Amino acid sequence: MKSVLILGGDGFCGWPTSLHLSANGYRVGIIDNLSRRHIDDELGAASLTPIASIGQRLQAWHGVAGQTIDYFHIDIANDYAGLRDAIDSFKPDAVVHFAEQRAAPYSMTNATHKRYTVDNNIRGTHNLLVAISELGRDIHVVHLGTMGVYGYDGSGLEIPEGYLDVVVKGPNEEVYPRSILFPTAPGSVYHMTKSMDQLLFQFYARNDELRITDLHQGIVWGTQTEETRLHDDLINRFDYDGDYGTVLNRFLMQAAVGHALTVHGTGGQTRALINIQDTVRCIRLAIEHPPQRGDRVKIFNQVAETQRVRDLAKTISEMTGARIAYVDNPRKEAAENDLRVSNATFRALGLKPILLDQQLFNETIEIVERFKDRYNPAVVAARSVWTRDNKPGVVKD
Amino acid sequence: MKSVLILGGDGFCGWPTSLHLSANGYRVGIIDNLSRRHIDDELGAASLTPIASIGQRLQAWHGVAGQTIDYFHIDIANDYAGLRDAIDSFKPDAVVHFAEQRAAPYSMTNATHKRYTVDNNIRGTHNLLVAISELGRDIHVVHLGTMGVYGYDGSGLEIPEGYLDVVVKGPNEEVYPRSILFPTAPGSVYHMTKSMDQLLFQFYARNDELRITDLHQGIVWGTQTEETRLHDDLINRFDYDGDYGTVLNRFLMQAAVGHALTVHGTGGQTRALINIQDTVRCIRLAIEHPPQRGDRVKIFNQVAETQRVRDLAKTISEMTGARIAYVDNPRKEAAENDLRVSNATFRALGLKPILLDQQLFNETIEIVERFKDRYNPAVVAARSVWTRDNKPGVVKD
Asked: Which secondary-structure segment (H or E) carries B392?
């Protein structure tokens, strides 16, 4: 039986991944410092869905699936010895690393959040790589990255999977082909840390021959997976606040409570999307297809499709009757961009991506309807200033 | 009068830079946590030249130059408020950032040193950028980077100054020109942090319009500058130990004490070099030619020439009669490499680089002769393991 440690296994992607692997023959351990719950407290926000304690979650899973998931309360950024000892004792074949602060707006709010995001994400990732190197174990690292590292350059070129073939001209017009890491243009401190993670992975794959897969994921939508549906105490997070809520879930929430769908700028931003059910399938596919020792870092684009934000809003508006409100965009980015993304690897591995679909919207809407007495309108507005030229509070409904 | 804060102003490059700027009409402040002195204690090593306390150094400078340099004892990686308050009160026009752990071998010795190097360097650089952004000041940041981030790919192409013009092919063979950050291939955790620094600079230049110059420096040789020669208490560091000693100074030390010149591998590595006197001149030129707000990060190669290590050894051997000993190379790198580097910007700004020269060797040899009773042969061997396949102690004389 293969063993997998999930760093950040209490979070929005980590929790359903833990259950999916446990349901499919893996021995699973979770490492989490519960920071996502603490940030909820800090922001005065909460998941729309009521989240059971980690103890209740694991107990419920044992009840419905008969499987035990081990839990380690460790802060991987600040407790290196704890992390190393957990890896040493659990003896995982693979480690899935979700344990990073993952909200771009949160990372831009103020100096404290900027510094926390860099410290937490870079130290955590580096500690993991150093621990595996120090233990001398041949453990496959699967990391959740983001499509957002690339920025949006507007060329219309399809974004390849991690590496870009380019040609460099010599002094006499002779040409040298090169395969380079796709240049990044992160738009937030959060995205910057994921771009820096790539350099950590490149180094440790080359110097220590660590086996690493980096998954550049699109924006996740949806809430439940096959496994989280099995018991109310297994329910997954549903974030709709200005920091952690992602665009599609936020629109569905706004529609359900009779609020306008708030579109930033012209809504001309094109984004890559993926359903949470596909996230967990992709992670499993990545674990099942590891690189060999000495290979370069494997980089897959973990996306199902791309959509323009205003088109998403229109779809939800037509379906629900909600009106659309255009508000200022706090981000420093092009008003309109195209985005084409290759997801050839996961398709070749058998993934048939779930596309945006009324039936799945309906499931999300049902969840929103069921829990809408927990809705707190005060947390929906983006609070992030982004650049020093912006003024807080510009983005409102 | 322009004001400059020197982060790491007690170190090998920072100290002579502080004096050079103070001698040339700048109001200078130094921020340093004296970590380089503490690492000497940790390693049981010491500069061959006796280094006065920071208080004695500043007093001696006041005595010979009549200038006051302010000193702030701040750990910029771990005391954000202290750093921000010092910038707020000192009101510098420019900050020169040397405050990073700068020895590649030290950064590779063990898990603690790897983690310290990443924590210290990334946190320090990020804290500086956040502080300037938070204060809303238009301060020019001049950072000491390294040529070593690029690795040595063996193509023979000249390394341009930071950015590389490439061509990307579209699906129908149409071509898209791009100017990208020159792809890095760092060979140590230390070099990796300097590569990660570049991403921090790119982000803060773009998002916050910070004005940033990043200097990719070659290996420094020599000890004294015009200013450090003025008083014994102003003397600069001379490191010759396996962690901090750089190749040319180490050869000169070995020759002076009758030791063989220890060449790693075949000595086929080609390296970029610069004399310490040119380092301080280049920093001043960089300060005097800042980017404008909104410009991309300025990147200059701060090098005088390139030399193959075994040729360096031969030169010193012929001059001094020392024999050459070839020992195993702890680094994971090509045995032989070419290296061509553009230094067009500094040449255009008027720098006439000091090249390797018998007269300057003689000055270094005089210093070595003068202090050779302080020589400790036990610290010369490289202690770094580099990869987990290496065994400590492989590299010996």
From this structure: none
pLDDT, tens digit, 9 for 90 and up, residues A73-95? 999 999 999 999 999 999 999 99
pLDDT value of residue B388: 62
The yes-or-no verdict on residue B6 having pLDDT over 60 is yes
What is the dihedral sign for C-alpha A215, A221, A225, A228? Answer: positive
Give residue A385's pLDDT. Answer: 63
Tell me which fold the domain A3-234+275-303+340-354 belongs to. Answer: Rossmann fold (3.40.50)
Rounded to an integer, what distance in angstroms lies between the CA atom of residue A291 and that of residue A351? 19
Determine the Cα–Cα distance for residues A330 and A387; give it in Å rounded to an integer. 8
Architecture of domain B3-379: 3-Layer(aba) Sandwich (3.40)
Domain boundaries, chain A: 3-234+275-303+340-354
Per CB-CB distance under 8 Å, the chain B contacts of A109 are none
> Most A CBs within 10 Å: which of B109, B116, B149, B166, as the mutation test of the A interface?
B166
Residues 6+ apart with CB under 8 A from B387: A207, A208, B332
Q: What is the pLDDT of residues A8-59, one digit of tens each?
A: 999 999 999 999 999 999 999 999 999 999 999 999 999 999 999 999 999 9
Does the annotation mark A190 as catalytic? Answer: yes
Contact A189 B203 (CB under 8 A): yes
What was the ipTM of the complex prediction?
Answer: 0.95
Question: Closest chain B residue to A113 measured between Cα atoms?
Answer: B130
Compute the distance between CA of residue B367 and CA of residue B386 in angstroms, rounded to an integer. 32
DSSP H or E run through B96 = strand B94-97
- CA–CA distance from A276 to each of A64, A136, A162, A224, A360 (Å)? 21, 34, 22, 7, 11
